[in-house]
Amino acid sequence: MKTLYLIPARGGSKGIPGKNIKPFCGQPLICRAIDQAREAGAADRDICVSTDSPEIRRVAEGYGLETPFLRPAELSTDRAGSYGVIMHALEWYARERGVEYDRVVLLQPTSPLRTPDDIREAVGLWRPDCDMVVTVCEARTNPYYNAFEADAEGFLHISKGEGGYTRRQDAPAVWEYNGAVYVMTAASLRRGPMSGFHRIIPCPMPAERSVDLDTPLDWMMAEELCRRGV
Length: 230
Description:
Layout: E1 3-8, E2 23-24, E3 27-28, H1 29-39, E4 47-50, H2 54-62, H3 82-97, E5 103-106, H4 116-125, E6 132-138, E7 148-150, E8 156-158, E9 175-185, H5 186-191, E10 200-204, H6 216-227
Parallel strand pairs: 1-4, 1-5, 6-10
Antiparallel strand pairs: 2-3, 5-9, 6-9, 7-8
């Protein structure tokens, strides 16, 4: 079973400029993701930083990780999706290194509170008949309890069910992707994008480790949680 640990790190960032090499608790964010992959058991030859930025490449290689390519310009805009980045990496390793990977573990640098154990747990849940294992946390709103939609007359009604739940803990559990770990079957990826995946296994993580860095406020919160040892 060959596994590619893919760390996508685009150079441009509007919300937090230069975030992938910005020091997070004293360490460049990209290096933190590399450490997490290594500590989860990945060999350096199977860790790929996919970036369009020579500066990110320099930081990764200065941290001892070969970064053998810069991704093409069409995969480097803020509109480029993860699927094209993943397929480019899989095809590059097959073409240039002769390595056909069976699965991809996607580790976005913007989940700095993810732990090596979170990665190992998600990989351990993977099985050949699934499309993907994905880390999740409990959704902030529940469509059976406190998520509402407006009807044709503009009045709110519960999104799902009859609205009979009076306690959140009695409603069915619902989950949201937290962006920390995706373990994807390469054969499923070759059939098409993740939007077509149907056999998805959840890997729950606590909310306090599910911070995703989109804004400076997210960064401040995540650093404070990190300092507190979350």
